[in-house]
Amino acid sequence: RCMEAKKMLRSAGYDIPAVPSPVIGICLSDKRSVDALKKALVDHRIYPPLISYPGKSDYFRFALSSVHTEEDISSLLNVLCGLVSSA
What DSSP string describes the chain? Predict the structure, then answer.
């Protein structure tokens, strides 16, 4: 499921490496995009950690697991892909 999700996100325009890991990092270049994504995710009851390191761009970190339902993953992908297509 994770590799399929990553493939969909790459198709939507995100720079996601094709590595077999359940972790998906979404790095956005500006504060406005970070704020818009955070709001869209919270509006859909998705509460991801926002990782911040001094001197680097903030990024969201998602870790998909067997606990997540197909509906959970679809909701995440719809928000992420919808945000890109509306930008």
Answer: -HHHHHHHHHHHT------S-SEEEEE-SSHHHHHHHHHHHHHTT--PPEE--TTS--EEEEE--TTS-HHHHHHHHHHHHHHHHH-
Q: Are 16 and 10 in contact (CB under 8 A)?
A: yes
Rounded Cα distance between 87 and 83, Å, is 6
Half-sphere exposure of residue 33: CA atoms within 13 angstroms, side-chain side: 17
Q: What is the pTM of this model?
A: 0.82
Task: Classify residue 29 by its DSSP letter.
Answer: S
Say if residue 74's pLDDT is above 90: yes
What is the tens place of the pLDDT at every residue in 11-21? 998 888 888 89
